[in-house]
Amino acid sequence: MHEGKALNALPDLSQASAFMRASGLQLTEVGPERVVGYLDLGPEHHTPWGMVHGGVYTTAIESAASVGASVAVADRGQIAVGVNNTTDFLRSAAAGRAQVTAAPIYQGRTQQLWQVEIRRDSDGALLARGQVRLQNVEPRPATTNPVVHPSSVP
To answer: Is 154 inside a domain boundary?
Structure first.
């Protein structure tokens, strides 16, 4: 992981939410100019037809771009939040390791644009690619609102 005071401003990335743990994205390099990681794809990522669900790729793309973009603005006391994610699914996969690589196309004062590629580890074939536009914003304080169960809503 990229070390430094910029990364200290981010939440502990090793304490992923249940949603992020389910996606399986593991980051191995994090910086303001590049984020690298991998997905170990398998049945837990499948659609009913036995192929990896596109949402897994979309989640990995959004996550890698958001982490890198947030590191890029952390020294300004900001974070970056996705405002648009366009993901293209190019090849199907059922299992195996996939490499995730993200890099900025543009990093401005208020917005960033990142490109992310997901490639099959065994042969480098491009499985999916995406672009994420992000807004640089001040972080909001953590909320303490309880989760509302749908059955309790009138």
So the answer is: no
